[in-house]
Design goal:
The chain has about 240 residues and is an all-alpha fold. It has two domains: about 160 residues; about 80 residues. The chain is built from seven helices and two strands, in the order αββαααααα. The protein has a two-stranded antiparallel ribbon. A hairpin with a 2-residue loop joins β1 and β2. α1 packs antiparallel against α2, α2 runs antiparallel to α3 and α6 packs across α7. The protein is elongated and about 110 Å long. About 20% of the residues are buried. Keywords: Membrane, Transmembrane, Transmembrane helix.
Length: about 240
Amino acid sequence: MRIDRYLPPHHWLSKIYRAGAAAFGGALIAFGILGFTNNLGFLSTSGTTILGLSTNGLLSLISVIVGAVLILAAALGGPLASTTTAVIGALFLLSGLANLAVLETGWNLLAFEMQNVVFSLVAGMLLLFVGLYGRISGGLPEDNPFVRYRHNEPPESEVPEQRTIEQQRSAELEPLAEAEVALGEGHASPEQERMVRAEAARLARAERQRAHEHYAHLQQALRDRARESGDGDDRTGDER
């Protein structure tokens, strides 16, 4: 069962994932293109500062590729954008930590400086937040698409109409339930008292109606049985 059924393009979570991936992807592509226009050394360990970040040709190329991947994921749908954004966010965090270890060494192939490390860590956390938003938490609602997917329940859009009717009925009964609780605790308002009395009267009428219908049904059953018994006696008399 594919998650796409649970997270269609018009779902608000899908819009968040796609917008986040597209926005960050576009920013990375712009950063990479600016690096290319400055004719940077491809593997220079002393980069040029662009938009407050140090970069070289390799980092510019990686930025364009990662940005294109994010934009492609955003175009293909919310579920893919969510997963891609989260994975790239984790890679940004790892990149920040790894490049922190090689600052000012010959292994600094991406020409990182401290501001790049800070950016990678912050951007990684933001991407993880966007990619995992509404997806991993201990308090997700039951109608969350990922909760329904993990529990093998049908998508919310495919839930039978009966469930919608039950939810509407539950919402209608909520004020009455609150009124009954307030009356039981002794702090009900006059309106709540009237509501509870009216509901009690309605239930009493319904119970009387049910009792009358049950009595009428029993009477009809007795008459039918008596009629069948009389017909049987008549047939026996004719045979004699």
